[in-house]
Amino acid sequence: MSKPLVVITGASSGIGEAVARQFSEAGHPLLLLARRLDRLEALKLPNTLCRMVDITKRDQVEAAIAEAEKVYGPVDCLVNNAGLMQLGMAHEQDPQEWDNMIDVNMKGLLYGIHAVIGGMRERKSGTIFNISSIAGIKGFPSHMAYCGTKFGVHGISETLREEVADDNVRIVTIAPGAVETELLGHTTSSDIIANYEGWKQSIGGAIAAKDIADSISFVYNMPQNVCIRELVISATRQQ
Ligand code: NDP
Question: What ipTM did this prediction achieve?
């Protein structure tokens, strides 16, 4: 039997890319979204539509998902992964960076949900993974706005889960600790970057994007009547 469509936002690097490879190996058709189309296409995954979408533009998100559903049928799984981390101390940081993170990490995530949730409810089936962070559970200095958005993801996710549980739709919050990806590259303070890298060394290094992809695959492949609501995944030595 052919496998259903999986949509992954932010699949051009890091966790999203690893998740895309994992679902593709399992035989799913994919819709991959990001702004760096060349990076999506370089993955060369079969049965895959790659679309240049800025997740903060709701019309682009909706159009790409509608197009993929025409080709591959309804979305059974959305991995709401696109994210931005710009660290900075509250008294120093340019508030534009706060806007950027709110737009991508919260509004973008909501737009993904909006595009698929109605169909999932009607079909009484589907799974949405919302990628939060341990920074969505506890605070860290220099992470004020980032933590704010990720605490928000936990709130959105858990509220939506309550809302759609009766329709047999699974909402899963994934909270990774430090993962080795390009995420830190958007922070402008070299001091904060150096501290972060030093901290990663002190915990024996960050975990790999594939570790998160393996966890998502495990949760997705549980029967539809079993919902692992939240997973916190980190390096063993991360506190
Ligand atoms: P990366 O920077 O490697 O990946 C981020 C992805 O998000 C890229 O594919 C990027 O694509 C996409 N993205 C960013 N802005 C937009 C936008 N406006 N429109 C569309 N796509 C966008 O980092 P990670 O893989 O680490 O991050 C993935 C998720 O995991 C994020 O939500 C992050 O907060 C979360 N996370 C990561 C942790 C870590 O330590 N790495 C820890 C905890 C959570 P492009 O630039 O091509 O648009």
Answer: 0.99
